[in-house]
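Dear colleagues,

As part of the handover before I leave the project, I'm documenting each prediction I ran so the next person doesn't have to rerun anything. This entry is a single chain, and its sequence is reproduced below.
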Amino acid sequence: MRKIIHVDMDAFFASVEQRDDPSLRGKPVAVGGGSGRGVVAAASYEARVFGVRSAMPSATARRLCPDLIFCHTRFDVYHEISQQIRAIFARFTDLIEPLSLDEAYLDVTRNHFGIASATTIAREIRRLIHEQTQLTASAGVSYNKFLAKLASDQNKPDGLCVIKPGEGASFVAALPVRRFHGIGPRGAEKMARLGVETGADLAGKDAEWLTTHFGSFGDYLFHAARGIDHRPVRAHRERKSIGGERTFHNDLHADDDLRAMLESIIEIVWTRIAEKGAKGRTVTLKLKYNDFQLMTRARSLSLPVSGREQFTQVARDLLAEQLPLPRPIRLMGLTLSALGDGPETPAEVPRAEQLTLL
């Protein structure tokens, strides 16, 4: 049985800004674009009290919290701190799967110090992070990745949660389904209409029912509802694309609304690209119509995208070529693929590991 730790920094970007500027401590802070069509990249816990969240349009965030203080992103600083944190992880294990600058899975089943208790390792990692960076991290400890990630969110901020062998199914049963990774607001709404609101409700459905209502996602739901996850921690995982998508509460059709939505998606996707320091040659626009028909349009460049300005222009051009749309859409997404310097075959475009924004 594996011993897995999921470490997640608490409000990472915003906490760094509050650490480096004492005048911001205890105040609602957002990192990202504070004007025009800007988007919140991160929010402090003081801002979250007002409902401010990442991927939220800045104008909406300001309405929710008039005293919100915006800070520009400083990815060079975030990268440097992230490297400090990764070095702490590496003291204990080589099996590290980073998910972003501020979170990672660690497999400590066999670790460099022969420590039998994963909980002891998690406590020591959190102590070292605070000692070296003056920032807090939350950690989840369990026997698989799905449960460890749920656990790390359980006692935030600055918390630790352990789900022991044999406790996974009962822990999941008590959770609302919106806490499951991969289930967004729209998915939770659909489940509620079907009478599924908790992990226990989900566990009461058989595999056939879940596949009927959720397609291939049903297999994941069947196992997740029982606390089952066989995925290993994958060190040095090769990422094929970086992207994001938004599912709307109301379908969009007007050209101006579509352009405005694209700008917000560009903002958050480019934030993730910059965070990863990624380079890619192919930009793909994804549209899902209100009848669930999916359309993608891609443009590949001879050289990697040079920066945000070029990425923005290619994305705008891809959308402009489709306007006016024949019918409303319920989802829009963007990805950057063909990462790295090597050539990409058509079969690899675009297999995106998407960041779901809403």
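The mean pLDDT is 88. The two ends are 34 Å apart (CA to CA).

All the best with the project,
I.
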